[in-house]
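Input.
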Amino acid sequence: MRYKILAESFATNCIAVIAVGGTVLWICMTGYLGALKIEAAAVITLSMILMYYGLTYVERAARMRQMRRNWELAGEKVELMETVAKLEENCISTIHSLAAALDGNDTYSNGHAERVSGFAVKIGKAMGLRQDELDALERAALLHDIGEVYVPDSVWRKEGPLTSDEQAQVCRHPVVGADIVGTIKSMKLETQAILHHHERFDGTGYPYGLKGLAIPLEARILAVADAFDAMTSDRPYRSALLMRDALEELYSNAGSQFDPRVVQAFLTVLEDISRETEVAVFPQKRFGARLYSTIGNC
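Output.
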C-alpha cells in the first residue's frame, strides 16, 4: 500500500526530494561562496526546476509506454478469448451432433435426451435454480448418455439379463461421458451432472457411490428425469410403464434411489409433463402425502 501511494504521488515526491536536496546543497555551499550566494541560489533553484521537469517527463513517458503495453495485452487477450470461445462453440456443436446421432440411431431411445432435458429444466425451475444453472442442466441432460457411444450396441439391445462384464460396461458410460464433455473447461457443471447422474441417494449407485447431498443437485435432478423417461418408454427388455406405475416407482424409491425433494419438485410440474407426453393426469394426493412422509424422515 505504501508503494502504491508513493507511485501515485510522483510529482509531490519529486518536489520534496528536489527541495531537500537543494537545501542541503545550499547549506554546504554557503561557507565557501561568500558574495556569490545569490547567484548560487539562482543556479541551484533553476537546476532543481529543470530536474523536476525532467523527472516528470521521464515518469510520464514510462506511464505512456506501460499504457500502450497494457492496451496491446488487452487486445491480445480479447482475441485469444474470442478464439477459445469459437473453439468451444465448435466443440459443443460437435458433441451435440454426436449425441443426437447416437440418440436417433436407437429406436428405443429416440428423443430420450430431449425429453429428459425438458423434464430436468422444469424440475430445476421448480427448485429455484438460476438461469445459468438451468442452461447448464439442459446441456447436461442433452449429453448425459453420450458415454454410451463406447458401449457395444449389442449390450443395449440385449433382451436377456446382462453378464457381469456387460454390466461393468454399462456402469462405465457416465465416466466416459464426463471425460468427453470434460474436455471443454467451461462445462464443469455439466461434467459433474453427467458423471453422477446414476448415483443413488442412499449411496448404492455408481460410479463412485456418493450419498445424499454429496451428489450434485443437477445430477439428482437428472436422475429423476432420466428414470421417469426410461420407465415410460419402450425398452428391449420391457414395454413402457403407465405413468401411474412410473410414479409409483419414483415415490417408492424417494429417499433411497432418488432425492425426495427432487421427486417433490417433479410432482409440482407433473401436469406440464403429462400434457407434453400426452398422458392423462390422475389424482396425485395420495402420492403427495406419501412423499411428504418420506421427506420428513430424511
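The first helix runs from residue 2 to 8.
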